[in-house]
Amino acid sequence: MDVRLHDSAAEFAAIAGNLYRRDPIGHTVELSGLAAPALPADAVLLTAWVDGRLAGAAVQTPPHPLMCGGLSAPTVEPAVTLLARTHSELSAVRGPNATAEAFASAWQRHTGAEPEVRTGERLHRLGDLMPPTAVPGEARPHGPDDVELLADWTARFFVEAFGSVAAPPVHRAFLDGLLWAGVRFVLWTQRRRPVSMAMIRPPVAGVSRIGPVYTPEDERGHGYGSAVTAAASRTATAMGADEVVLFTDIANPVPNAIYRRIGFRPVSDWLVIGFAATV
To answer: Among 6, 53, 54, which residue's Cα sits nearest to residue 34?
Structure first.
């Protein structure tokens, strides 16, 4: 087994992209990340090889978790062995349940860090779209005058979903980077007033991912989230997507039920597992 860390994002994308494209739905996060104009200089780019053939890949763009879904079962232990030596500060891993759990168990053995499940996620793909029919209002694409609103709402989403958000200038730069890379937003409006939003990533290998979807608390309960997600799905298809996917928090029954009603079906369950350093 040969495990390598790459300094060149272009080299890593050329190599690992082929592996990720074998399952573009399951690797939607990795593929959309590699499609970005640039990866940060401190990105972790790992490939694993057996008898000269690519057998696994993992990528992290700090401060986000390491995406481990590209690691096959035999490559998890060797990958952890190398990363425990070179990136012992790794704070979290994200991927399908079995792979994330195997990685976390190996990480604990190598580093002593205690694994803690932060989030359980469910990946869904769109089957037959069934838009809601009784939601008042209409959808429209975002425009330049909406960017401040989008910055505010995406920041609120991150606080609700993850408990924190980057400092306003950093978050705004993050949003500007997404927009520059071709990300689109759809707004659901009521009497021309925005009441909900959904973000759509450009298709990569035929797959477009929706999220975040956000409705301010005082606008919830009217079906706006369902309506804007259905509208975003149509936009993704118009952008050239063959498949439309999204993630939900397994612990939150409301969005899981909402997305099921408009045509999304479960694909796989994922975990985000954090590592608490031992004292």
So the answer is: 6
Total residues belonging to the chain: 279
CA distance 231 to 211: 13
Do 57 and 163 lie in one domain? The reply is: no
User: Which tokens hold the place of 160?
Assistant: 């609700």
**Do 239 and 220 belong together in one domain?**
yes
Half-sphere exposure at residue 45, Cβ-oriented, CA atoms within 13 angstroms:
19
Q: Does 227 map to a domain?
A: yes
What's the CA gap between 261 and 263, in Å, rounded? 6
Could you report how far apart the first and last alpha carbons of the chain are, in Å?
33
- For residue 45, the domain's CATH number is 3.40.630
Q: Can you tell me the distance from the alpha carbon of 271 to that of 98, in angstroms, rounded to the nearest whole number?
A: 9
Q: What is the pLDDT of residues 78-121, one digit of tens each?
A: 999 999 999 999 999 999 999 999 999 999 999 999 999 999 99
Closest CA to 215 of 204, 228, 205: 228
Residue 279: per-residue pLDDT:
53
Asked whether residue 267 is assigned to any structural domain, the reply reads no
Enumerate residues 6+ apart whose C-beta is below 8 A from 229: 198, 210, 213, 246, 258, 259, 262
Within-domain flag for 249: yes
Number of domains in the chain: 2
Question: Is residue 96 domain-shared with residue 24, that is, in the same domain?
Answer: yes
- 245 contacts: CB under 8 Å, gap ≥ 6: 25, 28, 123, 124, 125, 126, 207, 208, 209, 210, 267
Domain hosting 255: range is 129-262
How far is Cα 155 from Cα 132, in angstroms, rounded to an integer?
27
pLDDT of 36 reads 84
Mean pLDDT of 261-270: 97
